[in-house]
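Board notes, transcribed. Complex of a protein with guanosine-5'-triphosphate.
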Amino acid sequence: MAGFFKSLLAKFSGKPDIDWDDLEASLIAGDLGPKLAMQIVDDLRKQGRKLAGADIVSVAREHVRQILPPPQPPIMPPADRPFVILVVGVNGTGKTTSTAKLARLLQMKGRSVVLAAADTFRAAAVEQLTVWSERLAIPLVKGAPNCDPASVCFDAYELALKQSADYLICDTAGRLHTKHNLMEELKKVHRTLGRRDPTSPHEVLLVVDATTGANALQQAREFHKAIPLTGLIVTKLDGSGKGGVIVAIQQELGIPARYVGLGEGAEDFAAFDPKQFVEELL
Ligand SMILES: Nc1nc2c(ncn2[C@@H]2O[C@H](COP(=O)(O)OP(=O)(O)OP(=O)(O)O)[C@@H](O)[C@H]2O)c(=O)[nH]1
Ligand SMILES: [Mg+2]
């Protein structure tokens, strides 16, 4: 995906005049969202001088830089409780893979993790996480097929507490944000995780697939209405997705990107770095 700015530069360099509609369309195609696209175009037009491709890129970059906040420290749990991360999103965005990758990342930092397989819908989903948990040697709590995902999360919380684990990460089933009953189920999972510690879950991470572009913004809006999201995991940035949706979601909803998925391998995962994103990825 790297190269959105590069493609802008190539497209608008060496032209006698800027085609403003074309520029706005290109910015929207980069998933930056119509609002930001308009702001960037307005800003450039106001300059009232002859502009080169490099000017377009530097103005766009500056706008993006101002929208992305410096990484904020998350809310911390009480000292004797696990830090709880709830992973949510629509089907197939990369929740289970990201749950495992995040567990691995924390494990590499010397932290202990417990996993909850709260996708009780599909047997294959539990198996998928079981394979990861065995590979990483991380305890996994799972329930009977079709059992209540909230009860799996509750049991996993108890285990994390008992083992004095640093983190509990709960993988959930993919759900369409338009399905009312599934969103109610998610609210119950959220409430249940707060039973022993009202500050839990400390992070609710929405997993969005960068290749779905602007659709991810709509998913973020709807999930955020159901349960308060604290951050994003943006996956498949190794594909055709440009990652502009990170900027659009931050600008409209104030939800920051926390992690990025850069491939299918366990190591293709990193904490989101706004500076690197603006300078290299976008
Ligand atoms: N290229 C690439 N593939 C990814 C990335 N993250 C996940 N995938 C792939 O996306 C597919 C779906 O990943 P899952 O983790 O099963 O997605 P999920 O959100 O748990 O899916 P459901 O549980 O069915 O909703 C798998 O083939 C993953 O290997 C990524 O960052 N890059
Ligand atoms: Mg899954």
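The chain has two domains: 4-67, 83-281. Strands lie at 83-88, 113-118, 140-142, 167-172, 203-209, 231-235, 257-261, 269-271.
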